[in-house]
Predict the 3D structure of the following.
Amino acid sequence: MKLGGGKTRPVRPCLGLRGMTTSSRVTRLKSSFIYLANAVNDLRGNWDVLAVVIAPVVLLASLCLLPDALNLQHRVVQTFEAAGGQYISFVPAQIPVRPDRPDIPLYPVWFTRTLHLLLIVFMIALKLVVLCALKRMRDKTRLPDPFAEAIAVYRQAIPLAPAFLLVVVLQWLATAIGFSLLVVPGLLVYVWLYFSQYALVFDDRHGWVALLFSRDLMRRRFFKVAIRVVVFLAVWSGYNSWTASVFVIASLLLGPASVITNSIAATVFLMDLLAVAAAYATTAFFMAAGLRMYEDLRAIVAEHAPAHAVAIQATVPLGSAKA
């Protein structure tokens, strides 16, 4: 810009326009504990729906773990018997006891291993129904009645079950291949594919597309996301460890009362049910925190997409700009 004396002065950019440009890109990754706090706010007022949704999965998973708990109680009784001490045991009348083989469990190994496979299926089902419930909360389509809302969640989850199972299998397969090479590649693959299940439920991306979409979300921000995922896993494992310790101590304290009242099996099942419920509830909570981070990653990618699209536009000849 020329002044009266013939001097030139550079034109400064408009501060208001620059402020508008920077204010339009305000989405940033937050700390792990902020995401956890946001998850508490998101689930506030929706715990009744979440409890009804995960209740059938919790009950089925508890039944799958009950034979292992009874086998453990039976093994403890056999240990006291071998030591020559006095004991009180509960043995179902349908299962014969052979004193010459004290190492025989109440339930055979093939039976417990089959239930372990079913337990994996129930864990996958838990993640699917929790994600569907979170999606309905995000879309604000929740029904007033918690039981009606739970039925609506399962109706939405059942058609997605085959595609969700395929995504989970592909995710596990890729992670297993990474761990077969070294530990570090396995961890990298796990973090890369962390949001593939979210991509299926919230963005309708199936198969390998969901895995690739999860990887694309982390471009140029992998280590920031990895640190937050590691914090999620550390807090989740630590919380479940403390919860398991509390239930073990409680079961030991309730043991004499259950012997006196002749309700050992009921006590074992009750403690098993409470432990599984606590573990599955924490899983749902951390999935809600992961959803918050997934939404921020999508927003960041969407904010950078228009600038990238403008940068790769083809140049227009100057003469063709005029009509």
Observations:
- Residues 92 and 106 are 9 Å apart (CA to CA).
- Residues 11-23, 307-323 have pLDDT under 50 and may be disordered.
- The chain has ten helices and no strands.
